[in-house]
Amino acid sequence: MIQFINLITSDKQKVGKGIHSCTSEISVLEAKVDGKRVVVIDTPGIDDTRPGMKAADVLADIAGRLEAM
Fold this sequence. Notes:
Blueprint: H1 2-8, E1 27-33, E2 36-42, H2 55-68
Antiparallel strand pairs: 1-2
């Protein structure tokens, strides 16, 4: 997904390699596609591989960010 985000935005997010998680915080990025504003949200994965990261915590963080938008 991050490669797609990097393709359509001017922001360049780090691309992970292998099966290890890379995204640790939610990022909200904007782009214009065919003249229309597009908002893309990069999030940690639901099955994040880092110790202590629980799916419920990741989902709560995503819900909180969406609610604040």
